[in-house]
Design goal:
The protein is built from 8 helices and 2 strands. By secondary structure, the chain is mostly helical. A hairpin with a 2-residue loop joins β1 and β2. The mean pLDDT is 94.
Length: 206
């Protein structure tokens, strides 16, 4: 199990930017402890407060990113979990290619001479094919996350969150496919991808 000290700084890494409440909810941590650690990390120069339009939260600095990666590498070695996480990442990469195609098809529906026309979601059969693919990926994601969770408990919850978003989509709340700032299928998937990259010390696109 990861320490609260690691989870707080890592929560900002996987979310990109977040407030204390979001980090506390993500890992079921005490809110006061999270706030105390965030203030400590600000004093160390690892995080900074970000204000942009209606967005307000904490984000990692360059030194905070390096500190997070140092702690993740130490945890990975201590847990002797590197080979299992590498194997999970290899499977995830193949799934990720399919997921990105599905999300692109959800957002873009070529028509006429416009290959980049926005999907207006009036073509029921097109959207259903995308949703079928997202459901199929759900089943393939489950064993990947089960293996990760057995190695490092902080990976617990990704499949449940992805499934919860799909359930809302199936009830007609189509924004839960890819809308940012909520736990949509796309947001959860991107968090998991960032979690894997950070844990293994890889750069996106490498």
């Amino acid at each position: 199990m990861s320490s609260a000290e690691l989870l707080v700084i890592h929560g900002l890494r996987v979310k990109g930017m977040a407030d204390g409440a979001s980090v506390a909810r993500r890992f079921a941590l005490d809110r006061e402890l999270v706030n105390e650690l965030l203030l400590d990390y600000e004093a160390f120069g690892w995080i900074s407060r970000v204000h942009f339009a209606d967005v307000d939260g904490w984000s990692l600095t360059a030194s905070g990113l390096a500190e997070n990666e140092r702690r993740l590498a130490a945890e990975l070695d201590q847990a002797r979990a590197r080979s299992r996480v590498l194997a999970a990442h290899e499977v995830f990469v193949a799934l990720n290619s399919r997921f990105l195609v599905a999300i692109t098809n959800w957002q873009i529906r070529p028509r006429g001479g416009d290959q980049l026309a926005a999907n207006d979601h009036t073509d029921w059969s097109w959207d259903e094919r995308v949703l079928d693919e997202l459901h199929g990926l759900q089943g393939r994601l489950q064993p990947v996350c089960d293996g990760l969770s057995a190695a490092l408990t902080r990976f617990t919850g990704y499949t449940e969150r992805y499934s919860a978003a799909l359930d809302r989509v199936d009830r007609g709340e189509r924004s839960w496919v890819a809308q940012p700032k909520i736990d949509s299928c796309h947001a959860v998937w991107m968090e998991l991808h960032e979690d894997l990259l950070a844990t293994l010390g890889l750069k996106r696109g490498s």
